[in-house]
Amino acid sequence: MTSEDPSGTALPATTSLANRYGSQKRAFGGKTKRSIVIAVLLVAIGLLFWVTTSSSQSSVSFKDIGYSATDATELSVDFQVTKSPDATAKCAVKALDSKFAVVGWKVVEIGPNAPKAGADGGQTTAQRTILRTESEAVSAVVDNCWIVGSTK
Q1: Are 65 and 86 in contact (CB under 8 A)?
Q2: pLDDT of residue 150 exceeding 60
Q3: pLDDT for the residue 152
Q4: I need a labelling partner for 58 at 20 to 30 A (CA). Which of 11, 25, 104, 134 fits?
């Protein structure tokens, strides 16, 4: 298959296709491929470093131990918090009624604690808080804990 250019001479089919649709795309060269691989590796290493350091700096966990009703409008809630000994954490504690509606809510601050020679180095502390309720509660739990800062 041939075509003619404006001067009337016959052009090969590949040349006329290139004129019509543009030339073929070139593949990446070896240097470009190597640069792309290096850039992807650097981004992956940076992301891994960020994930590792951000999770170790703000790590806090909690465990519900139990609760006891003092009267119809007050509960005593026991829980444990595990965090870095020099960090300050806050925990949201809530009381629920028989329909799982929140009838009491309190944010408790847990300050830095002195490192101990225990199994976990003083990271876990037992907490007890009094929680007032608007009606009789049948359950109390720690909803969430978070790190608010550290003192050094």
Answers
A1: no
A2: no
A3: 47
A4: 104
